[in-house]
DNA sequence: CGACCGCTTGATCCTAGTCAAGGGTGGTGG
DNA sequence: CCACCACCCTTGACTAGGATCAAGCGGTCG
């Protein structure tokens, strides 16, 4: 499962052996459970084993700004490895399972195999690329395009992670949360979603994103997957 | 100059010695010159020596989305160390000077002193934190608050980098660029700026941001500097 | 069976975008 | 040296699109 790193990095057999040796405590989460909170000083990092996990900022008025979503195989809080305090929180979106790996164990593995450090570092850089894309998405595209882009990204990443083979993926996201991701009101989210449904490009139902017309949808969302930096990009 | 890293990381004398040995080619830039372009595969990383530098996405219609600003001492394209292709570009905002350090030299230094790798890694993680804050800023705050937040961030970082001691900093940013940073039209940018001028909290003139009332401005922009992860935060 | 929660839809308001015009400044060329 | 031009900032009028408010619907869980 950890071998999602090899989507973007070449790992040797010894790297993989080192990864397998990492101690890990699994933790089962209900929807909306926090894994870490803003201000925490975690001593271990989470690896998503199952489900969907998200990072978010807590705003002064209690609302949230969701920042990114993380699928099985992702490391959603590697930031804490090198930075004292969490400036954001991480929570489960649907039911999820995460593995907690002590920082000390990770550092030790990095010492032994610096290529591992490189792979994790690269992972954090790709996270940053996803954040940048979110800035552009939420700042320069209209509501429907934003939503289309997000759907494309989630499905594309799901496929890259071999979590799905068809044009859909699990995403137990509520419309309110979608709004707090895209910077839109609940009403607009709904109308944009209705638009995507109406033109037959995509749908979100029962916690599942379905893409019916990839070409048109990725056009609407101006989705260009290069920023995800896969070693071998997917076609569809 | 490189010792800006010590704002957030503890460096030993030997780390510093290693940094001083790095080979570097300086390059002088006019306003708007690109340092790297989207799609490039750079073989060296830039260190800002003078002036202001920005990252941006190029949009299909030719407009830009500015993503972050980088002051003297920053490493604006460390991403390229571990990722094949640039997914964004980096350009000079005003006149600027950068130092180009070959990736090979950096990797060699990391091998010799892994604490250096950690410091640079941490720097990239703080970049990511700045991106996250930009998502929140552009998605969940009104025009004036966005601008206030950006001004606070730039001045705060300038002070942290010892580039200024008063409540102002050099920022040769045009209003169009401000708009392409904050996701606002030129007209709105101007009106929001007028508002900040009118209530005596801040100003932008002759390529210089001046903050007249820090307390009120940071209130308007909901600016909380924790996400910058300085080892010792500033008060004012 | 009832209450609650999340989705859906409609009506209204208001904010930010668009369009258009004017003013200041610096640079270039006559 | 001056005239012209280009660029950027500034301001106003109008418009459109998204936020807000409000109500109805449908499923689920107690």
TrEMBL record, chains A, B:
InterPro entries: cNMP-bd_dom, cNMP-bd_dom_sf, HTH_CRP, RmlC-like_jellyroll, WH_DNA-bd_sf. Coiled coil: none annotated. SUPFAM superfamilies: cAMP-binding domain-like (SSF51206), Winged helix' DNA-binding domain (SSF46785). Pfam families: cNMP_binding, HTH_Crp_2. Keywords: DNA-binding, Transcription, Transcription regulation. Residues 141-215 form the HTH crp-type domain. Residues 1-85 form the Cyclic nucleotide-binding domain. Gene3D superfamilies: Jelly Rolls. This is Crp/Fnr family transcriptional regulator. It comes from Tardiphaga alba.
């Amino acid at each position: 499962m950890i071998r999602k790193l090899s989507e973007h990095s070449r790992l040797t057999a010894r790297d993989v052996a080192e990864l397998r040796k990492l101690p890990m405590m699994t933790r089962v989460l209900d929807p909306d459970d926090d894994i870490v909170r803003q201000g925490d000083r975690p001593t271990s990092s989470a690896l998503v084993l199952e489900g969907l996990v998200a990072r978010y900022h807590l705003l002064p008025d209690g609302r949230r700004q969701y920042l990114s979503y993380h699928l099985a195989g992702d490391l959603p809080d590697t930031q804490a490895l090198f930075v004292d305090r969490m400036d954001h929180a991480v929570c489960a979106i649907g039911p999820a399972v995460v593995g907690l790996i002590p920082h000390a164990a990770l550092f030790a593995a990095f010492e032994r195999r610096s290529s591992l450090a490189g792979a994790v570092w690269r992972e954090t850089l790709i996270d940053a690329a996803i954040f940048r894309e979110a800035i552009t998405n939420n700042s320069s595209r209209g509501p429907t395009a934003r939503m289309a882009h997000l759907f494309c990204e989630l499905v594309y990443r799901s496929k890259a992670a071999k979590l799905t083979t068809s044009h859909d993926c699990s995403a137990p996201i509520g419309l309110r949360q979608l709004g707090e991701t895209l910077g839109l009101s609940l009403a607009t989210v709904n109308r944009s979603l209705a638009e995507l449904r109406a033109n037959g490009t995509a749908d979100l139902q029962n916690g599942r994103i379905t893409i019916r017309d990839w070409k048109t949808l990725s056009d609407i969302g101006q989705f260009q997957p290069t920023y995800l930096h896969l070693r071998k990009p997917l076609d569809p």
